[in-house]
Amino acid sequence: MTTVYLGITGDIIHPGIINIITEGSKFGELIIGLLTDSAIAPHKRLPYLTYEQREVVVKSIKGVAKIVPQEEWSYVPNLLKYKPDYIIHGDDWKSGPLSKIRDEVYSVMETLGGQVIEIPYTKGINSTALVEQQKAIGTTPEIRLKTLRRLLAAKPTVRILEVHDGLSGLIAESVSFCKDGEYKSFDGMWSSSLTDSTSKGKPDIEAVDLTTRLQSVTDILECTTKPIIYDGDTGGLAEHFVYTVRTLERNGISAIIIEDKMGLKKNSLFGTDVQQQLAPIEDFAQKISFGKQAQVTKDFMIISRLESLIAGGTVDEALERARAYIKAGTDGIMIHSKNKSGDDVQEFCLRFRKEYSQVPLILVPTTYNQFTEEEFEAWGANIIIYANHMLRAAYPAMMTVAKSILEHGRSLEADSLCMPIKQILELIPGTK
Ligand code: SPV
Ligand code: MG
Fold it and tell me: What CATH number labels 138-387?
């Protein structure tokens, strides 16, 4: 039997996909290599549908004989495994980042004695353009909520950016960087208590209540689709925390991180310059357990943030707390430190990973920022949060412009520091 291979994501089915399936099936039995989340995640945003959902959809398309998982971005492993007589692809891969993939495919098919079929790319329709349209439509709370767990399963490290309003949310949603054909973007957003309160002109001492914090979160939810991790400070009283969990879940937030402190909360980056009082282990463990019992979905995550190192304690103490919180049902551990060397965090990570190979580990490397994501990955970290950078970047830029206007008595000199008017008018679709 002559076989034809076609690799697809199968998330958004459009006439271009149907066309390539129809054309491919004319050459023989069509094997679909359905890309798994982990094959896609390092290169593109995660599909809206899970692998299983995409499989159900693609299976029912006329012309599809068989579906096999494609676990890698490269076609090579599956081509070697299934040895098809043909592989079919749209001719849009002749240029751009996919051209490397094309070269590999040609050389493998040559060794296999097979052929590459290239069909004209269906103009005006491709899934990337449709994803753009989908973004304009938005997502559902349920799909968004689940995405963090899917990302954790699909990627070695999940990259999260701080957001404090709709505009910073749009940046986290859409900014990307292409290096050597590799596409990088942020996987999700951090609603920081520090930057949310600061942008409201309030101190980061739990003075901004949940309802007010949710106003910013709603602005962000309205114009983005990526998952959100909510900075829940201490989580408040256990009796109140259960309501916070449900409110966040209902809004499609993926996770809350709460820190094991008590009393008047002060920002962790003060370290021991202020009083940082740790909560008794049992009390915090109970809060976690109350929260886990309160949540409605199985996907929402309650992550415990260890403040032992912030309060001047040891890695041993932090590990002891981690064990207790895991026993209480926490879904992940965030270890925090303001030590610039990163030694304490590294020691914690390596020791933690020896005991727990699967529990997600979260880092906020604001002070020990000399390490790269690859290095944190080697320590065993799963989520890296850039916790305050959007607001810290915006404030000095605004100050410089405000001072320039005062200095010159006019705004001409400040103009070059500002984005052009045309650009801001075009920034948000629908402004015109
Ligand atoms: C925040 O972003 O509000 C945090 C992280 O809690 S930190 O500021 O480092 O404490
Ligand atoms: Mg905070």
Answer: 3.20.20.60
Contact in structure between 411 and 405 (CB atoms under 8 Å) = yes
Among residues 170, 63, 176, 161, the alpha carbon closest in space to that of 128 is found at: 176
Q: How many residues are listed for the chain in this entry?
A: 432
Residue whose C-alpha is closest to residue 339's, from 259, 265, 272, 260: 272
Nearest atom in ligand 1 to the alpha carbon of residue 196 is 3
Residue with tokens 């403040």: 307
Locate the ligand 1 atom nearest the alpha carbon of residue 310 and give its number. 10
User: Are 74 and 101 contacting, i.e. CB atoms less than 8 angstroms apart?
Assistant: yes
From the CA of 54, how far away is ligand 1's center (Å)?
38
Of 71, 79, 76, the closest CA to residue 51 belongs to 71
**Mean pLDDT split into 10-residue runs, the chain, 432 residues:** 95 90 96 96 87 96 97 96 96 84 95 94 65 68 95 96 96 88 89 98 96 97 95 96 98 98 91 92 98 97 98 98 98 97 98 98 98 98 98 98 98 97 88 84
Annotated catalytic residues are 204
Tally DSSP H helices, then E strands, for the chain: 17, 17
Q: How far is residue 78's CA from residue 4's CA, in Å, rounded to a whole number?
A: 12
What pLDDT does residue 134 have? Answer: 62
The DSSP 8-state label assigned to residue 321 in this structure reads: H
C-alpha to C-alpha distance for 231 and 274, rounded to whole angstroms: 20
171 closest CA partner among 158, 188, 157: 188
Residue nearest atom 7 in ligand 1 by C-alpha distance: 268
Ligand 2 center–CA 205 separation, angstroms: 9
CB of 208 sitting under 6 A from ligand 1 = no
CA separation for the pair 287, 163 (Å, rounded): 26
Q: Which amino acid is at 97?
A: P
Q: 3-128, superfamily in CATH?
A: HUPs (3.40.50.620)
| Domain limits, CATH 3.20.20.60, in the chain | 138-387
pTM given for the model? 0.89
